[in-house]
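User: Teach me something about this protein's shape.
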Amino acid sequence: MPARRVRDTVETALAELAPGPLLAAFSGGLDSSVLLHALAQSAGARARGLRAVHVDHGLHGDSAGWSQHCRDFAQALGVELAVRTVDVARTPGLGLEASARRARYGAIEALLAPGEFVALAHHRDDQAETVLLKLLRGAGPEGIGAMRTLRPLGSGHAWRPLLGLPRAALHEYADHHRLRWVQDPSNADPTIDRNYLRMQVMPRIAKRWTEAETSISQSATWARDAADFIDEEAERALARTQGLDPATLRFREWLGLPRALRDPVLRRWLRAAGLPEPTHYQAAELVRQLGEAAEDRQPCVRWPGTEVRRYRDLLYALAPLQLPPFDWVAEFDGSELELPLDLGTLRLVPYAAAATTKRLAEPLQVRFRRGGESLRVHAGGHTRELRDLLQEAGIPPWQRGRLPLLFHASGALLAVADLWLSEVGAHLFGTEGAQLQWLPRAAQLFGA
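Assistant: First, the predicted structure itself:
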C-alpha cells in the first residue's frame, strides 16, 4: 500500500536517528506536506517535540496566502509552526533560486536548537536530478555524491528520511490522505535548470532506461562513500603537509600528493583559514605555477578573497593584502598608536607591571618601508641593511612593507616593529624603563 510505504520509511528512519528534537521544513508544496503529515502521525516524532518552520521568501504575490495555508495545515495536524520572512539578497554569481535557498537555510539554521534535526522532504527523483546537475557542472565525488541522508547544519543536522523513495510514492500518499498543497508556479519554469531536467530530460531518460533514477541514486551512494574516504585521507594528508603556522603548507609535499588528494587538501586548508576556495581552473593554475616556477621566484595565484603565495618551502594562504600609503607618517610619544589598514597598534610598555610609562620628551616618527633603510642592532656591530635582516629572518616579502618602522628626528632608524632595536633605540627605551610593543591584528605578521 503506497501510504504505508511512506509511513514505514519514516518510522524506520526515525528509529535509526540519534536522540534529539525534530523540526520539519514545510514549504507547503506536495513533498513537504507529505513529510509533515507522515511525521505528525508518528508517535516517535511527536515524542521528539515535532514542530515545523515555513520560510516566506516574498518572491511571489501569493506568498502571504501560502504562509496562511501552511498555518492552517499545521494547525489541523496539531503541530506548532514558526513562519519566518526573509529578504532574498541576490548574491553575485548566484541565480535567484540559489540565493533563495541560501536565505531559506539561513533562516532554518537560526531557528535550529542545539542537536535538533531538521527534516527535509527531498526524495529519489530530487537526488537523481542533483547528480545530473553536478555532472553537468564538472563536479567530483563530493558533488556527485549529491544529498546525504544526514549532514551537519548549523547547531543541528539536516535529515532526509524520504531520499530513497520516488516522487510517485509521495503523490500516492498525498492522494490517499486527500492532502492539499501549494502549487508554486516557479516549479514549472523551464528556464530553471532543475525544472528543465525534471520536465524535459528525465522523462526521456526514464523512457529509455526505466531504472535510471534508481541507478543514478546508487551511483550517488558509491560517489558519497568515495568522497567520505577521500575526505578522511585528506584530513590525514593535511596534518602531514601543514607547516608550523596553520596558514602554511609545505608545497613540495603537497604537490607530491596523489591528484585525488591534492585538491581536497587545498580546500580543507583554505576552509580552516576561513578563506574562499578556488575554481578548478584556479587550483590547476596554482599547481602549474608551483611546478614551473624557479626556486628564486615567488608565485602567487589570486581569486576573490584569497591569495596563495609561495615563499621558500612554504605556501601561504591569506586574504588580499594592501600596502600602507607610501607617504603615511605619524608621531609616536609612547602612548598607543593605531596603524593604518588594520595593521594593529604600537605602544611602549613599562618593564614593571605597576609602573607608568612616561611620555617621550621628544616624539618619534612612525612610517613604513621606502627602501634603503639600515640600522646597527648590536653595540659596536656593523650597520645592517634592513632588507638583509628581513630576508635572513624569513619574513615573507609581502609582509615586509607592512612592518611599522620607528625613526628618530634625525632620521635614524630606531626600531623595526618590535623585532629589532638599533643600539640607539635600545638605549632610549631602556632609560624610559619600557619596551616597544607591536600588536598586529590576527597574525598579520606572517600573513595567516
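Now, about its shape. Residues 443-448 have pLDDT under 50 and may be disordered. The chain has 16 helices and 20 strands. If you'd like, I can walk through any region in more detail.
User: That's plenty for now, thanks!
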